[in-house]
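Now for my pick.
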Amino acid sequence: MTSAPGSTDTPDDRGAEDEDDQAESTATVLVAGAANLAIAVLKLVAGVLTGSAAMLAEAVHSLADTVTEGLLLTALRRSTKPADRTHPLGYGKERFFWALIAAVSIFVSGAVFAIYEGVRTILGGEAEQTYVWVAYVVLVISFALEGASWLRALKQVRAEATAEHRGLAAYLRGSDDPTVKTVFYEDSAALVGLVLALAGIALHQVSGSAVFDGLASLLIGVLLAGVAYLLGRTNKALLVGRQADPRLVHAVRELLDAAPEVDAVVDLITQVMGTDMVLVCARIDLADGLTASEVENACLRLDRELQEAFAEVDEVFLEPVPRHDPELRAKVLARYGELPVGRALG
């Protein structure tokens, strides 16, 4: 959540908010995990009884989602470990790593099996359905359970998007919290998968052709592969090191520019180090005539003001530099291009 400059939130207030967000995310993941485990068992039973490829694909889909929730719980627990000697900037990126592994698990165990089952069924010829009513009952129950999990995830995502003054789509694209995003995407894919499975089973029953069942399984696999790719791409960007929200970058720059001791912000680098954890590195040209003591006090004050104004700012490094140094200017231009530094940073 991006705080406005001049926020009156104290560190204790923000710490309580972070704990509430952590508890909310954990509860969302636990609800999704419990629902997926129950659904996986039901779908497996239905798949074995009916012989439906779509139901078996959905069973593996739910099992993959259950494994994913376990990985996300690991991410939530490990990412909150405090900084230490070996990890001086903390363990925030653990959340991105485990979320990436979760995306891989969705693809490997869910998408690959569903695509295989779909192709096998399509090429295998006709197959008689049995106990079709079991599949319909399980699909209805599964839709209810998945729907409840999806509504909880949607509620949290909407609340977080509103807190950041963003639309839902913009929040999902830019969020640095992969846990709730993963649950939301998973549950959305699960609901679509259930509709595909229902259509495949119903068309198989009406036409007597197993091709429809296989096609449904194939589409479920493609759906899961798409979700896995989307989540994998997001977490890769966060692991590699992504700039903070541009709105935060602009606000940090404005706060530094407004300081009486600062003549110019020469360079500003931000990086997301974890969920709601941003590293700020700024090269600033200070006013001529400041004593060493005044420079030290100015840097300490700006560090404190940045962390008080912006809840996400976790570490601040300030480096006094001359703005016209040719080597430094070349380095900044190499990173941002020929645009003025102030525009490039946005």
Remarks:
- The chain has eleven helices and three strands.
